[in-house]
């Protein structure tokens, strides 16, 4: 069986979300790079994969998908095993809690953390732009409040959706990984 | 069996998403209004339902949920019938396409259409603020491009996820409903 294909630079957070899920389920896959500088994401070939000209895109035989969370869920469903069931769709309440904290990542955690990653890493290192410290400070304030809710949640449960690791946790990895490379990552005192 | 409860003003687009799904599956439900002017969304009672102090929140017996898409999917799964299966989770490819276009609504359609609704309706009518025409014009440009992709998609398929109505379509209703009350709704010539 030909491996599934993921289109897009692996260092993009949205591509990383898909790769993380492929790794978790142990699926065979191939990453096909998309060259943004050459505008390859707006090429006719790529627009067939994603009509909005964004990454990632995904191919499994004749099935083409886009939108990282949709691709990730397809991967988790397709390669689900008893020991790796990250969506818990067989259990109504557990699946709902996975969805709740997946949505919190998309609509609350990411909007707070991503501007810090952009301002401290992506803009200065990849775009030659200065860091806007006002944006960083406002986002740090926002993130702090968001993390207070996470702290309370994780003092009651081992993982975000409950006492089982899930897609909800995985979703937080890509931006958190980059955040840890900014000067605002303060390690806990030992 | 006690009806499930939805907390939040029914006119909110995110609350409407949940109500729409409850109506589609014919579930019995009760809407409990949350008074924003009285800061009820930040009250201790409501923070138990949604620790971020937002609406909607949802209660089904001892289960408390928040995040409108997570609640909506719980409702669609719980009350799924053969004739009303809006998530198609029994079919890997169909479920993936429902997810793709649900994500497109959240990350592409809503960001283009919602500023128009805010500037033309919510700000002037509910907040006494003037319409920022620059924001409206920019969003209309964005929306036009987004709708070209929709036009292409819907010329190939009856509905967004394929030739079946799904959660993906429903998600577009709340903002589209309000958009149709703005001066920018241009009806098709007969």
UniProtKB/TrEMBL annotation, chains A, B:
<dbReference type="InterPro" id="IPR040079">
    <property type="entry name" value="Glutathione_S-Trfase"/>
</dbReference>
<protein>
    <recommendedName>
        <fullName>glutathione transferase</fullName>
        <ecNumber>2.5.1.18</ecNumber>
    </recommendedName>
</protein>
<dbReference type="InterPro" id="IPR010987">
    <property type="entry name" value="Glutathione-S-Trfase_C-like"/>
</dbReference>
<dbReference type="GO" id="GO:0006749">
    <property type="term" value="P:glutathione metabolic process"/>
</dbReference>
<dbReference type="Pfam" id="PF00043">
    <property type="entry name" value="GST_C"/>
</dbReference>
<dbReference type="InterPro" id="IPR036249">
    <property type="entry name" value="Thioredoxin-like_sf"/>
</dbReference>
<dbReference type="InterPro" id="IPR004045">
    <property type="entry name" value="Glutathione_S-Trfase_N"/>
</dbReference>
<dbReference type="GO" id="GO:0043295">
    <property type="term" value="F:glutathione binding"/>
</dbReference>
<dbReference type="GO" id="GO:0005737">
    <property type="term" value="C:cytoplasm"/>
</dbReference>
<comment type="function">
    <text>Conjugation of reduced glutathione to a wide number of exogenous and endogenous hydrophobic electrophiles.</text>
</comment>
<dbReference type="GO" id="GO:0009635">
    <property type="term" value="P:response to herbicide"/>
</dbReference>
<dbReference type="Pfam" id="PF02798">
    <property type="entry name" value="GST_N"/>
</dbReference>
<dbReference type="InterPro" id="IPR036282">
    <property type="entry name" value="Glutathione-S-Trfase_C_sf"/>
</dbReference>
<dbReference type="InterPro" id="IPR004046">
    <property type="entry name" value="GST_C"/>
</dbReference>
<dbReference type="GO" id="GO:0004364">
    <property type="term" value="F:glutathione transferase activity"/>
</dbReference>
<comment type="similarity">
    <text>Belongs to the GST superfamily. Phi family.</text>
</comment>
<feature type="domain" description="GST N-terminal">
    <location>
        <begin position="2"/>
        <end position="83"/>
    </location>
</feature>
<feature type="domain" description="GST C-terminal">
    <location>
        <begin position="91"/>
        <end position="190"/>
    </location>
</feature>
<keyword id="KW-0808">Transferase</keyword>
């Amino acid at each position: 069986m030909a491996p599934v294909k993921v289109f897009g630079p692996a260092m993009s957070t949205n591509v990383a979300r898909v790769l993380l899920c492929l790794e978790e389920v142990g699926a065979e896959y191939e990453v096909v790079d998309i060259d943004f500088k050459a505008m390859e994401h707006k090429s006719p070939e790529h627009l067939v994969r994603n009509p909005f000209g964004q990454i990632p895109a995904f191919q499994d035989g004749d099935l083409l998908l886009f939108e990282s969370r949709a691709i990730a869920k397809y991967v988790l469903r397709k390669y689900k095993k008893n020991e790796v069931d990250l969506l818990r769709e067989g259990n109504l309440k557990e699946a709902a809690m996975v969805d709740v904290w997946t949505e919190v990542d998309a609509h609350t955690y990411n909007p707070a953390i991503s501007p810090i990653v952009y301002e401290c890493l992506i803009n200065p290192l990849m775009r030659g732009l200065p860091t806007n410290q006002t944006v960083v400070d406002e986002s740090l304030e926002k993130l702090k409040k968001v993390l207070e809710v996470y702290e309370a949640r994780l003092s009651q449960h081992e993982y975000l959706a409950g006492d089982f690791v899930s897609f909800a946790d995985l979703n937080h990895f890509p931006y958190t990984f980059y955040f840890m490379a900014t000067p605002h990552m303060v390690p806990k005192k030992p």
